[in-house]
Amino acid sequence: MNLTINGKDPFSVSCSREEISQAFRVLKEASRHLEQRTATKFYPGQKVFFFTKKGGGRKIVGTIVSVNRTTVTLREDENQFSRWKVSPSLLKVEPAAKTSSLKRTK
Fold first, then answer.
1. What is this structure's pTM?
2. Parallel, antiparallel, or unpaired: how do β-strands 92-93 and 83-86 relate?
3. H or E element at residue 93
4. Buried/exposed 32-41: b ≥16 CB within 10 Å, e otherwise
5. Cα–Cα distance between 91 and 36 in angstroms, integer?
């Protein structure tokens, strides 16, 4: 895959600082937009899970408490006092919950 900005290789010294800054802003905006779109797939009360980075990749299963633009807050099922703020891109719907009777309401 060849990545170009204005027909130039972004990793070469021929790109100006402004062109690199512009490319960074575009990528950052695209990433933010993707996070927001992903967050709309989740709703409070939904059962989800994710894997932690630390501790050997422990699986955290929880129930969504709130959905914001860039994060989803969930309460861990094993420890009701434990809350996590997670990027929606890391979350997956709990398979056992897919067949439940939870309905999304607006």
1. 0.59
2. unpaired
3. strand 92-93
4. eeeeeebbee
5. 13
pLDDT, average across residues 21-35 = 84
Q: Which of 106, 74, 68, 66 minimizes the C-alpha distance to 92?
A: 74
Residue 94, judged by CB atoms within 10 A of its CB (0-12, 13-18, 19+), counts as middle
Task: Express each pLDDT in 35-89 by its tens digit.
Answer: 777 777 889 999 999 998 877 788 999 999 999 888 899 999 888 888 999 988 8
Cα separation, 30 vs 86, in Å, equals 19
CB 35 within 8 A of CB 70: yes
What is each CA distance from 88 to 5, 14, 18, 33, 41, in whole angstroms?
Answer: 29, 37, 31, 12, 9
Pull the structure tokens for residue 104: 């999304």
The residues, ordered by sequence, that sit 6+ positions from 93 with a Cβ below 8 Å of its Cβ are 46, 47, 48
Quick check: 84 and 67 in contact, CB under 8 A? Answer: no
